[in-house]
């Protein structure tokens, strides 16, 4: 019998990764009921109720590997801080502190380390979320590739927002154009040049999410990182036991992403984003939330892209630009590996 081994596709955020986490990792960890959002729920983080304080502490962690380390619009340091801050934010938490642990390969350029650390500091200041602890390890040459950063974040909220919280009739809002991170990295990595400038969307969006929460009516949130918008929408539909009806012509795309995707033969729905979120909102509050998002530069291109429905439970139906309908499936893996 052939040995079962980990493949690159298992880390790309699609269906293979979800199966790996459920069938191999979570299955072998003893779960203790904490009363909040737990490991089994596979949300963007976990929470523990603090009954004495009438609220919840939210915790998330992520390891970041990206090639190249520096790319149009950002670098691994900006990516690490933004990714962790955003995971806390889409659970409804106010990020309050981060840790940053670095594993670096022997022979790595110290000037690049300094540049990455300055980027980490700048991004944490932008997110108003300080780095308060960390760790540094050096590995022998070729034991790792360049650099790995792990960031852990802690935040607080009254009640966590779950990605499973959609109700029938809820509207779905995307806070900005999709596909910018994955498509720009692929283009830069492979040396492709296009008429339009392509840049990653990597950025902390906690202030943007905070404005949506203050407007009210938010029922579910998720940031479509690995696996892209298609994977995130399918997860939300499956966990909420509802169907999602999405209008393709409402999904915001930059000209650069649209043209590059067409040339490269890649669907921008399937690639990672690092500076947007999907927000489920009660029907009567959707326009209020959209209005608040558009007041910020990071939310200027936010749009309502669809709604949750009772039909086609646990499926995502895409209403195409030409008027037809098809199921939008989650990809098995990410066509652009090592982008987050």
TrEMBL record:
PurM-like N-terminal domain sequence ranges: 54-156
Residues in PurM-like C-terminal domain copies: 168-317
Species for this entry: Methanohalarchaeum thermophilum
SUPFAM superfamilies for this protein: PurM C-terminal domain-like, PurM N-terminal domain-like
PANTHER family: CARBAMOYL DEHYDRATASE HYPE, HYDROGENASE ISOENZYMES FORMATION PROTEIN HYPE
The family this protein is said to belong to: Belongs to the HypE family.
GO biological process, one term: protein maturation
Name of the molecule in the record: Hydrogenase maturation factor HypE
InterPro entries in alphabetical order: HypE, PurM-like_C_dom, PurM-like_C_sf, PurM-like_N, PurM-like_N_sf
């Amino acid at each position: 019998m052939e040995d079962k081994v980990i493949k690159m596709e298992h880390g790309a955020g699609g269906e293979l990764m979800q199966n790996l986490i459920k069938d191999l990792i979570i299955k072998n960890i003893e779960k203790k009921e904490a009363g909040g959002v737990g490991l089994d729920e596979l949300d963007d983080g976990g929470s523990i109720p603090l009954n004495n304080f009438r609220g919840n502490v939210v915790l998330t962690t992520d390891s970041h590997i990206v090639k190249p380390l520096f790319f149009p619009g950002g670098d691994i340091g900006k990516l690490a801080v933004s990714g962790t801050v955003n995971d806390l934010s889409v659970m409804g938490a106010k990020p309050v502190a981060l840790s940053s642990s670095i594993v670096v390969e022997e022979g790595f350029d110290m000037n690049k380390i300094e540049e990455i650390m300055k980027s980490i500091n700048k991004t944490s200041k932008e997110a108003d979320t300080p780095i308060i602890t960390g760790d540094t390890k050096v590995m022998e040459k070729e034991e790792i590739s360049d650099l790995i950063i792990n960031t852990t974040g802690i935040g607080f909220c009254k009640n966590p927002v779950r990605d499973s919280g959609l109700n029938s009739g809820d509207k779905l809002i995307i806070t900005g154009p999709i596909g910018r991170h994955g498509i720009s990295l692929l283009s830069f990595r492979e040396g492709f040049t296009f008429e339009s400038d392509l840049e990653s969307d990597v950025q902390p969006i906690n202030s943007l999410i905070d404005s949506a929460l203050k407007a009210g009516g938010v029922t579910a949130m998720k940031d479509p990182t690995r696996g892209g918008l298609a994977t995130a929408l399918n997860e939300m539909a499956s966990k909420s036991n509802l169907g999602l009806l999405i209008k393709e012509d409402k999904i915001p795309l930059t000209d650069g992403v649209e043209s590059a995707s067409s040339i490269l033969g890649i669907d921008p729905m399937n690639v990672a984003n690092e500076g947007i979120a999907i927000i489920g909102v009660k029907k009567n509050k959707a326009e209020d939330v959209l209005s608040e998002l558009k007041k910020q530069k990071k939310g200027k291109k936010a749009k309502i892209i669809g709604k949750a429905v009772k039909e086609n439970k646990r499926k995502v139906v895409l209403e195409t630009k030409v008027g037809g309908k098809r199921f939008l499936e989650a990809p098995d893996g990410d066509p652009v590996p090592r982008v987050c």
